[in-house]
């Protein structure tokens, strides 16, 4: 394991020790023990910047499941390094913020374990070159985010939001896996770099459109693009540190990473280009429009996040369009640089805003705009940070959001330069949509500032408002300072972070030499676009009472949220109806299903397969074997005719003991001993259980019931005999027993062949069998701890 592999796994390794530390150091906030983990990771990643910025890549491989091509291959270029720094850097600030936000009364052990698992999962997503490992970490982000969103599990909305996020994102992730497998079938590799080398083969293959659609489903669901954005607003029920981390800089950016990484691979396809561009623009406008009407502060930021993600997605679409259509290199570069720059800027101003909203909620007890106002003099530091970060989000100079928004508008206005047949008719719509979305962004940014801090002080807040303690202010202050620094001195990022990341998206080694400036001249369309945004946005805010009633025309029945809720409800009801149709509650019914299915599949196999039967190789049947079989038949007949449960159990044990005796004649003494032990234990348990069970009468067995049972029994028995003889007669491979005889003493250095087979050659089987026993033991332990109180409610017995 290399250092970079260790850095990826460090959070989940640290999570193992969190519970121990929490048990013995309860007087110290657990966050202080967690904080060094992301700090160490981001410090290590900063040491890689000189290497990556000098146009070098880092590749380290570690075998994981080499037989299926699933290796832990780490590939670090500018793009992956940018995301990794955001994940660990914002993670460190979130952990520091959570120390002040979460009290000792919370289940801090659970919270930080989930957070560390999520951190490892995100690092694994952005630093992996192997698509199977990428998918493994991808789904781990969904599982850990589910746990984080449902951290306050006693709240119904938290459970609802967690379930919705997991269902939508894991559904998309599963489809994305199908896309990865389709690519591997085309290229015969699971390496992203290896796929990049076979773009012509992908372009000519009929599976390419399917791979594109499936991968985009995964990216759009994770990055909350239209129409899959509905999970993100409901995920705001999570604690604010979770929202600041997952929904500003990490999880929602995973889809953007996948799109950016695979854009060089799929830019040849109009489907890829137009899907990214149009879905991004629709998401930008729709989410910004809906953000204006929200009353919950976190809901405003949730829709704002969706809108900003759409902005970045559309920029990646323009970049892909430039590759596809042969547009000028400048248009393509502007779009990609703007996407990377806004990715950084969004992490800074949105992370700070989430933390500030958390402070307001923490110190006032409410997130409702109707119950807030006039907090400027009470919370001056929070007010200052909100003004800076909100104006940056709105694209107002001199903050960093203004610069990336200018590049965004410039790319949108320049899109008409692309030589694309359909583009001439619709190119004017792209800058219009960009301006409309930006206008609504300015409106809700002003609403945030004025609704919280200006106007009259509201007396209805649940808590007496006050400024937050410094421990909670440090993290948003750091991000706010970065908003100012990156706005005034943007080129400190150009050669070190932005250019290497953009080169990773472009899949080029030629330096970009990006220079970001505040002034583009009076003839710049982006300048006048910004002026229009500010003027129209300010007027719309001033006269908002005249146009806000437009939101009343929406019918909740036709919303995507309602479609999700109704689909979930009817799918559950349908599943219950189908299940109730065949779940009778009788074990005999389930055995009928199993045996009938086995018999049907066996008959189909026999019809479609040329089976031969050879008797020459069969062993001679001896008298002891005949005697044992007669004993087994006699026991079976006794079971069928007896009315006593105890006699049936004893006759079953006779069958088991007879089989063990048969193993002895076959010289399989180890199997005989195992069979004897298992049969003795099962017989004892059955006798004990049935002795205490109520003596209920047997069900009425009609002729039809017996006839059906006889037919199924004969079919299963006959097909089993036929398959056994056919398998013996048709040896496709040599017996593996000779391999054990030849190698058990030399390769495994063992003296007992059976032991060596169990613990060495079949070690994984034995390991998982042991795991099954462990899980069963854990289930028994839980049942022993679980008691039912007098009210009929389950409760756990507490032990000191």
From TrEMBL:
Residues 706-785 form the MrpA C-terminal/MbhE domain. Residues 69-112 form the NADH-Ubiquinone oxidoreductase (complex I) chain 5 N-terminal domain. It is a multi-pass membrane protein. GO terms for cellular component: plasma membrane. Residues 129-423 form the NADH:quinone oxidoreductase/Mrp antiporter transmembrane domain. Keywords: Antiport, Cell membrane, Hydrogen ion transport, Ion transport, Membrane, Sodium, Sodium transport, Transmembrane, Transmembrane helix, Transport. One of its GO terms (biological process) is sodium ion transport. Pfam families: MbhD, MbhE, Proton_antipo_M, Proton_antipo_N. InterPro entries: CPA3_Na-H_Antiporter_A, MrpA/MnhA1/PhaAB, MrpA_C/MbhD, MrpA_C/MbhE, ND/Mrp_TM, Proton_antipo_N. The chain crosses the membrane at residues 6-25, 32-54, 74-99, 111-127, 133-153, 165-186, 206-230, 242-260, 272-292, 299-322, 334-360, 372-396, 428-449, 470-489, 526-543, 590-609, 621-641, 648-666, 672-693, 705-728, 767-786. It comes from the Bacteria. Residues 630-695 form the MrpA C-terminal/MbhD domain. It is found in: Cell membrane; Membrane. GO terms for molecular function: antiporter activity. Belongs to the CPA3 antiporters (TC 2.A.63) subunit A family. This is Multisubunit sodium/proton antiporter, MrpA subunit. The lineage of its organism: Bacteria, Bacillati, Bacillota, Bacilli, Bacillales.
């Amino acid at each position: 394991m290399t250092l970079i592999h260790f850095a990826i796994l460090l959070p989940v390794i640290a999570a193992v020790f969190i519970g121990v530390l929490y048990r013995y150091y309860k007087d110290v906030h657990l966050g202080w023990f967690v904080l060094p983990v992301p700090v160490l990771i981001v410090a290590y990643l900063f040491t890689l910047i000189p290497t990556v910025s000098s146009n070098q890549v880092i590749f380290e491989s570690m075998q994981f499941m080499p037989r299926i091509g699933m290796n832990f291959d780490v590939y670090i270029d500018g793009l992956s390094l940018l995301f990794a720094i955001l994940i660990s850097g914002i993670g460190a600030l979130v952990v520091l913020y959570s120390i002040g936000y979460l009290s000792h009364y919370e289940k801090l052990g659970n919270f930080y374990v989930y957070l560390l698992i999520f951190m490892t999962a995100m690092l694994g997503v952005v630093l992996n070159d192997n698509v199977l490992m990428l998918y493994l970490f991808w789904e781990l982000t969904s599982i850990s985010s589910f746990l984080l969103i449902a951290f306050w599990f006693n709240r119904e909305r938290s459970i609802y939001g967690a379930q919705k996020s997991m269902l939508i994102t894991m559904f998309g992730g599963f489809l994305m896996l199908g896309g990865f497998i389709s690519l591997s079938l085309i290229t015969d590799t699971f390496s992203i770099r290896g796929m990049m080398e076979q773009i012509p083969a992908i372009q000519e293959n009929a599976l390419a459109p399917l791979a594109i659609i499936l991968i985009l489903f995964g990216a759009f669901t994770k990055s909350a693009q239209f129409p899959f954005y509905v999970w993100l607003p409901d995920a705001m029920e999570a604690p604010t540190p979770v929202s600041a981390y997952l929904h500003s800089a990490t999880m929602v950016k995973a889809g953007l990473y996948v799109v950016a990484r695979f854009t060089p691979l799929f830019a040849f396809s109009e489907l890829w280009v137009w899907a990214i561009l149009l879905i991004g623009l629709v998401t930008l406008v729709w989410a910004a429009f809906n953000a204006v009407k929200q009353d919950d502060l976190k809901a405003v930021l949730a829709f704002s996040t969706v809108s900003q993600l759409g902005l970045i997605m559309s920029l990646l679409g323009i970049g892909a369009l430039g590759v596809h259509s042969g547009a000028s290199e400048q248009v393509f570069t502007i779009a990609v640089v703007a996407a990377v720059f806004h990715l950084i800027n969004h992490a800074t101003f949105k992370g700070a805003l989430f933390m500030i909203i958390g402070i307001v909620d923490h110190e006032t007890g409410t997130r409702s705009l109707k119950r807030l106002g006039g907090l400027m003099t009470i919370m001056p530091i929070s007010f200052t940070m909100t003004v800076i970060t909100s104006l940056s989000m709105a694209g107002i100079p001199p903050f960093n959001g203004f610069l990336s928004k200018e590049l965004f508008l410039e790319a949108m206005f320049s899109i008409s330069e692309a030589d694309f047949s359909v583009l001439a008719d619709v190119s004017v719509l792209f800058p219009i949509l960009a301006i409309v979305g930006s206008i609504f962004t300015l409106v809700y940014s002003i609403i945030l500032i004025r609704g919280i801090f200006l106007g009259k002080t509201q007396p209805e807040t649940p808590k007496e408002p006050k400024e937050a303690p410094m421990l909670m202010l440090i993290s948003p202050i750091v991000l706010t300072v970065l908003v100012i620094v990156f706005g005034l001195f943007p080129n400190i990022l150009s050669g070190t972070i932005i250019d290497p990341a953009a080169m990773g998206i472009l899949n080029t080694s030629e330096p970009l030499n990006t220079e970001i400036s505040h002034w583009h001249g009076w003839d710049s369309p982006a300048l006048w676009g910004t002026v229009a945004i500010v003027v129209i946005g300010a007027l719309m805010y001033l006269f908002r009472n005249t146009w806000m009633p437009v939101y009343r025309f929406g019918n909740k029945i036709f919303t995507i949220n309602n479609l999700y809720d109704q689909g979930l409800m009817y799918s559950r009801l349908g599943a219950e109806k189908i299940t109730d149709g065949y779940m009778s509650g009788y074990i005999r019914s389930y055995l009928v299903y199993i045996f009938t299915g086995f018999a049907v599949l066996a008959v189909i196999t026999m019809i479609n397969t040329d089976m031969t039967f050879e008797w020459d190789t069969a062993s001679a049947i001896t008298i002891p074997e005949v005697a044992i079989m007669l004993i087994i038949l006699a026991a079976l007949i006794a079971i069928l005719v007896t009315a006593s449960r105890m006699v049936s159990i004893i006759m079953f044990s006779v069958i088991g003991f007879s089989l063990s005796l048969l193993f002895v004649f076959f010289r399989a003494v180890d199997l005989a001993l195992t069979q004897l032990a298992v049969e003795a234990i099962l017989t004892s348990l059955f006798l004990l259980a049935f002795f205490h069970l109520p003596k209920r009468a047997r069900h009425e067995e009609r002729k039809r019931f017996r006839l059906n049972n006889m037919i199924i029994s004969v079919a299963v028995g006959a097909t089993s005999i036929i398959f056994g003889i056919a398998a013996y007669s048709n040896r496709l491979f040599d017996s593996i027993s000779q391999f054990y005889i030849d190698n058990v003493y030399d390769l495994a250095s063992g003296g007992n062949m059976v032991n060596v087979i169990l613990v060495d050659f079949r070690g994984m089987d034995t390991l998982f069998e042991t795991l099954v026993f462990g899980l069963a033991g854990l289930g028994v332990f839980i049942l022993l701890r679980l008691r039912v109180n007098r009210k009929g409610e389950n409760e756990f017995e507490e032990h000191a």
